[in-house]
Every structure is written in C-alpha cells, then in structure tokens.
Amino acid sequence: MTLDLSRWEKPDKGVLFVVTGSSGTGKTTLVHAALAHVPHITFSVSATTRPPRKGERDGTDYHFLDGERYTELMQQGAFLEHATVYGNGYGTLREPVEQAVAAGTSIVLDIDTQGAAQVRASWPGAVSIFVLPPSVAVLDERLRARATDPEPVIQRRVREAGLQLSECGHFDYLVVNDELPAAIDQFQAVLVAELLRRSRRQGWVERFEGTGTTGTTR
pLDDT digits over 128-145, tens only? Predict the structure, then answer.
C-alpha cells in the first residue's frame, strides 16, 4: 500500500505522536519513513544540558541549555517529559509543541516507556504508538545480528527490551515490525487516521455546513 499524500491539506490542529519501542524493533526507521512521506509532521527538537558536538546547531539538533536553566525550566513544569542520561539532562519543551500543534503541525516524539508515561500524564490528547518485534526471540536475533556489541551488552539490551515490551499494553496503537514494508504502511496508516479525525478538520466541516437542502433527494 502506498498512500498518495501529495495534495494532503494541513489539519486545523496537529497531533502529538509518542512513539516507543525497544532497541532492535526498527521504530527509528518507521519514524524516518513517515517524516519523509507524511506532510505537516516533524520531529521534536529536545532540550539538553550536554555540550554541542561538532556540526550541531542550537534549535535544530537540540536546544542546548546550561544546567541552571534546565533545572529552572524543570521546576517550572516546562517539560512534557525529561530524563537524565549519562549525567546529562534531556527533555521535551512544552511550549514549542503547543505552538506547532495549534498551527496544524504534528510532532513525533521518539522516547522510552518512562518518557511516554510522563507525556500521557501531562498531555492527555497525545497518541501513543508502540513498535513491537514479532517475538522476543526474533528481537534477540536482530540484536545479535548487528555483531557490533560484546555479549554482555547484548544480554543487557535484551533484558532492557523485555522491560520496555512489558509496557506495550498502555499504548493506543501497536505496530508489529515483522516485514518492514508492511510495518511502514501500518505505522503511516495510524498517523493518517488520527489526522483525519473530525476534531482536527473543523475547516472541512465549516466548508460544507449549510450546503444541504430541506427537499427530498432520490
């Protein structure tokens, strides 16, 4: 299935999509394919306290903040979700997401289950999607097939994946990435279906309101 979205009209209101899946499920591939094909959807730019790497630009790759400012924003409740990773703070700022969604642009967050839980609590209208492998055994095979990590690292990732997968029942949609082309279609079908909800297309409703007649048609 190939969706032709070349004449896709921007919705009146965008959607905050929360995408989660353990390492090896291919969620990043699905997200990138959707961003390339579905108009008016963009990836969230996170805030972080880590210093910029060579070539990274503030506001494009990350919102780079010092520790004091990051803590201040966190205390103000300015983040939809936040976490500390390897001693650095990472978070999704609420205001840019609110502005984008109000203007009809949808935002995709690629975060773990803990971050997804924070977003569900702070943004009840968020649409959550969990990308699953066909089975834990297949996920194990995928992680080992990379042949880039030592065995202890692989075992740790498999354990972490199990913890992530056990949370899938809290998500709105589940996409099983068994065959990639089918998973890409299913993932994008979720996005399109949500963006066609009447609540996000009031402009279409107003376009056709009052066009009916009281006469009988046959």
Answer: 999 999 988 888 787 777
